[in-house]
Write a structure and sequence with these properties.
With about 150 residues, the chain is of the alpha/beta class. It contains 5 helices and 5 strands; from the N terminus they run βαβααβααββ. It has a 5-stranded mixed β-sheet, sandwiched between helices. The chain is globular and about 40 Å long. It starts with 11 loop residues before the first strand and ends in a 5-residue tail after the last strand.
Length: about 150
C-alpha cells in the first residue's frame, strides 16, 4: 500500500491564490506552459489571499486566516513535496479590493512571507503572479517575482 506522503504520486506544485474561480484557468494554463513536468497541483485558497499573506488585510480574523493558509501549505510541503510555490493575486478581487499596483506590492510581500515560513519553503522557487483581464479573457498578466526557470 502506498502512503499518502509517497512521491509515487508524481511531481507536485503548490498554488496559493484567491478563491475566485476566474484565477484557476489562467493559472493552470501558465503552469502547463512553464512547468509541463508537474503532474499535480495543490491549491490553498482564501478570499484576498495576497492581502492576507502580505499583512495589508489586518485584524484577528486575518491573523487566523494567515495561520490556516500556512497550515494547509505545510500539508502540501510535508506530504507532496512541491517543486515550487506560486502566490497569486488578481484584478477585481472582492476579498482584497485594491489597485493593480497594490496587488503587485501585496504579491511581492506574500512571496517573502512564504519564503520565511521555514527552510522547506525557503529552498523552493516561490513565484508571484498577477491574474488580470485581457479583453474578455482572464490571463496571467505579470510574473511579479521569481523565475519560472528556477
Amino acid at each position: 500500500m502506498i502512503s499518502q506522503g509517497s512521491t509515487n504520486h508524481g511531481t507536485f506544485g503548490l498554488v496559493l491564490c484567491c478563491i475566485d474561480g476566474r484565477n484557476i484557468g489562467p493559472l493552470q494554463e501558465w503552469l502547463k506552459k512553464n512547468f509541463p513536468e508537474i503532474a499535480h497541483v495543490d491549491y490553498v485558497t482564501a478570499p484576498g489571499l495576497d492581502g492576507i499573506l502580505s499583512g495589508s488585510i489586518a485584524g484577528q480574523s486575518a491573523s487566523d486566516r494567515q495561520m490556516a493558509i500556512k497550515t494547509d501549505a505545510f500539508v502540501s510541503l510535508s506530504h507532496h513535496h512541491p517543486q515550487f510555490v506560486i502566490v497569486s493575486g488578481h484584478e477585481d478581487c472582492a476579498g482584497n479590493p485594491v489597485s493593480r499596483e497594490r496587488h503587485l506590492e501585496d504579491i511581492k510581500k506574500s512571496v517573502e512571507a512564504v519564503r520565511g515560513w521555514d527552510e522547506g519553503f525557503a529552498a523552493l522557487p516561490i513565484i508571484g503572479l498577477y491574474v488580470e483581464r485581457n479583453g474578455d479573457e482572464w490571463v496571467v498578466g505579470e510574473c511579479v517575482t521569481g523565475n519560472a526557470e528556477a
